[in-house]
Prior knowledge:
Layout: E1 12-15, H1 21-30, E2 33-36, H2 43-49, E3 53-59, E4 62-69, E5 76-84, H3 90-107, E6 112-116, H4 123-126, E7 132-143, E8 157-161, H5 167-177, H6 186-195, E9 198-206, E10 209-221, E11 224-232, H7 241-255, E12 260-266, H8 270-278, E13 282-283, E14 288-294
Parallel strand pairs: 5-6, 11-12
Antiparallel strand pairs: 1-3, 2-5, 3-4, 4-5, 6-14, 7-12, 7-13, 7-14, 8-9, 9-10, 10-11
Helix pairs in contact: 5-6
The chain binds coenzyme A (COA).
Amino acid sequence: MTTTLPPYSMLTVTQYSKRSRHSVRELLSRNFYTHVHLDWHESDQWMESEKAIIRLAWLNGNLVGMMALSEPLNNTCWIRLAAVLDHTDTNQVMRALWQDVESDLRQRGVQKVAILMIRDWAIPLLEPMGFRFEEEIVTLRRAERIAPDAPQLPDSISIRPTRGDDVQAMAVVDHNAFEPPWQMAIGDIHQAERIAANATVAFQNIDGVNRVVGYQISTLYFDGAHLARLAVDPLVQNQGVASALVSEMLRYFNRRGVYVVTVNTQATNTVSQHLYRKFAFYPNGYDLPVWVKDLA
Ligand SMILES: CC(C)(COP(=O)(O)OP(=O)(O)OC[C@H]1O[C@@H](n2cnc3c(N)ncnc32)[C@H](O)[C@@H]1OP(=O)(O)O)[C@@H](O)C(=O)NCCC(=O)NCCS
């Protein structure tokens, strides 16, 4: 039997509008070809709160695809959502979406686009469009009933739970510590802090003025806790600040009977891997590749 494909020259790409919210939700939840990498948000909430770049692909009035990217941060952004309707030409739909998105990104001066390949289906589609493998994200897991003692910090540095008004200072630390595309937007830090089970900042007191110099955010999930974010300002690195934040977080969960803690980090991040190894975090084999496209 031969299948006649619909005329894909009729494919149109539009901007997202709230009117299509229901169709997008259906597309993302009912089809095989989906990519969802939102970390802290639900898709509806994210699309409406973010200054995201969102495109919809239509064929004969039916929604057949969508692609959404985070607001560019330091000239980089992430593909956060993508979906193609089952039984349509995945390649054509993704190409049409990407073509439209790419020209918008170039106009905004974006130089790098990244995607966490949570599932493999997009690789053969994105590779011909110029995406290449960048690096692996590894997952490390700790399952210990003993919480380590907190190391001695310099006298000027202490740790306390976060407050809502720390978010701006946390974002500064984050952007000093991480390179693009790994920096987190302030809205994401705010949301992560809001839903965290344990979030702490390290602050330094110099001449009576307190300055946030590090932070960690951890969440709870069905099987344990997850260290979702850890960053220390380069000015105070290698003084035990991250070790103190991690050990206090482990002690917090230990007191509540939560003994399994996971964390993700870049395979190339030797400092963080050294740190996590010291606290008995070991690879659990759940690694995910990051692919990128350079637009510069
Ligand atoms: C990873 C990070 C949080 C560590 O913060 P920190 O306050 O400097 O950490 P600590 O001082 O507690 O410990 C650093 C450890 O790394 C070791 N280290 C430093 N440079 C290293 C290197 N190039 N290779 C291997 N180990 C290194 C230090 O000796 C120390 O280990 P030790 O306690 O056994 O002596 C900080 O470097 C950072 O913010 N990096 C960017 C963001 C990041 O990678 N976050 C975590 C990954 S998601």
